[in-house]
Specification:
homodimer, 325 residues, five-stranded mixed sheet, 12 helices, 14 strands, 22% strand
Chain lengths: 325, 325
């Protein structure tokens, strides 16, 4: 392969800010327990000030996948917008420390860097408050056609459809990719997105080479209740469908080809955050390194198993070493 | 369908004899806990005498499937040998009470009717002691070509390979079926059989229209460790493969066609005995009633869910009603 990057990823550049709190904190600050709520900048600043000894780690679904790809030894490039502020600088440093190329220019003005303020209660529940900020400002001007042409694949997170400019940029990136033989991978990201963009995502399928979806997302996309109906619907499309089913493992289909790969063993499931992100990392590594579909699925399962065995959405060990690559 | 029977089944005619015992009973009588042990007639008589207040119910894998088919409303015919003794008469009566036709002539001489002496300890464990007796004597003369020609399908249990005469009879039945357009269904029955008959079963695949196997049996057949390898191996064969994976549901494949059907919900799993037998019943019902493969799988899953929700290997309610047929 003579292309510079294995994968260029497009996603929200978000810093996770975690703090241990008591349940009373949730009541005092009116935080809904165990779910994700979108918040504005004012409230983000308020909560940030209320957090004591917060821990900041770079997050974001696609960015997590890129970190996983780097851990596997792939050459990754991430595109996503931060602001030139403290969190933005931290995100950049963290992204680059993983070995991923990251050159999207930070914004000098406008909303602050996106953050997800996560209140972790003693029972281990994570109550998330997401401020999308600068990540929403990623736009057409940030799409670098040369990078796309120099990548084996691009990978786009469905979450971007919630940001009109980033969606427009994503569609432009897909068009460019199709013009230069770069494969297009997309993740449905969240079942709730189907409520808002189901028809758009269905139309998009014709432009995709690889679709990532967990079972709930895929059922919501086709508005069906049985997984078998999802399987049949996706086999009829001209793409690779990589469907994850938690402890039931994953199913990979490309027309006549169908594979079922078991979940990799995990001694103790600690935190399922990032399982889908890391599955995508393993799968995309395999796909950009000439592996068969079943092998891609096994690598995805392995990466997912690593990340759910500890807190946090990014690998804690070298996936390259873990996979014996 | 103008044929008289939907399915003619060939299997061991066994009466299950269950008794509640204390753990001390297992020690006194040298019974291995929780497993199945083959025993001879003398020991069967000894244990039978030692059982207090035993409960007798007709059993046998294929016979259980035939009972399930009858409960679904199918027209079934069972072939298997008992002796004309008390247990044999009980087996005949029980089989016929389910609505299944059963005309194999009982033996007037030779070994007694097969029985499985099951010692149930207070912890719910079942320690099985099987005496194959008269069931082993099922032979060529018991294969009725007219019945085979008048059935949509025959169904044979792999257990019969442990009885040379019954195996010879089964092979003859398969040959007859192939000569008159009757479909041939076969179950691998038990992973341990692969140790003894793996090569024979592999050769047999070419003569089968439908293969039933649970995951362990199928992996043992092809000597592979990953389920995906089983799937690929069976898709390359010219048959319908119905593979059960316990709580992971079932996978049905016929060449290009692949379906994944979830396990049907069960409030509480009480006793998994008979799950595979009843899955086969549901599946064969669907197949002999012009249903699609996914629908056959769903019916199998439903029948299996019913039988594991209570003690015993045969349905306790009308499966026809449960399935809304």
């Amino acid at each position: 392969m003579s292309r510079k990057y294995d994968v260029t990823g497009f996603g929200s550049a978000i810093v996770d800010v975690l703090a241990a709190v008591e349940d009373q904190f949730l009541l005092t600050h009116n935080i809904a327990k165990g779910v994700m709520t979108l918040i504005d900048e004012h409230r983000a600043a308020q909560l940030y000030d209320a957090f004591s000894a917060p821990r900041e780690v770079a997050g974001g679904s696609c960015a997590n996948t890129m970190a996983g790809l780097a851990s596997l030894g792939a050459r990754g490039n991430f595109a996503g917008r931060v602001k030139r502020d403290r969190l933005g600088t931290a995100f950049e440093a963290s992204m680059r420390s993983t070995g991923v190329t990251y050159t999207t220019a930070p914004a000098d003005a406008g909303p602050s860097t996106a953050c997800c303020l996560i209140a972790v209660t003693p029972d281990g529940e994570r109550s998330m408050n997401t401020y999308l900020g600068a990540a929403r400002e990623f736009g057409l001007a940030d799409v670098k056609d040369d990078d796309i042409a120099d990548s084996q694949a691009i990978y786009i997170e469905g979450y971007l459809w919630d940001a009109p400019l980033a969606k427009e940029a994503s569609l432009a990136a897909i068009k460019t990719a199709k013009g230069c033989g770069t494969k297009v991978a997309f993740t449905l990201s969240d079942p709730f997105l189907m409520g808002r963009y189901r028809d758009e995502f269905l139309s998009l399928l014709g432009d995709l080479d690889i679709l990532f979806a967990n079972e709930e997302e895929a059922k919501a996309l086709f508005a069906v209740e049985a997984f078998d109906d999802v399987l049949q619907a996706l086999r009829a499309r001209n793409l690779i469908a990589a469907m994850t089913r938690s402890e039931k493992g994953c199913v990979i289909a490309r027309g006549a080809e169908v594979h079922m790969v078991d979940a990799a063993p995990v001694a103790r499931v600690v935190d399922t955050t990032g399982a889908g992100d890391q599955f995508a990392a393993g799968f995309l590594y395999g796909l950009t390194h000439d592996m068969g579909l079943a092998e891609c699925g096994r690598l995805g399962a392995l990466a997912a198993a690593e990340v759910i065995s500890h807190y946090g959405a990014r690998p804690e060990v070298s996936l390259k070493q873990l996979a014996g690559l």
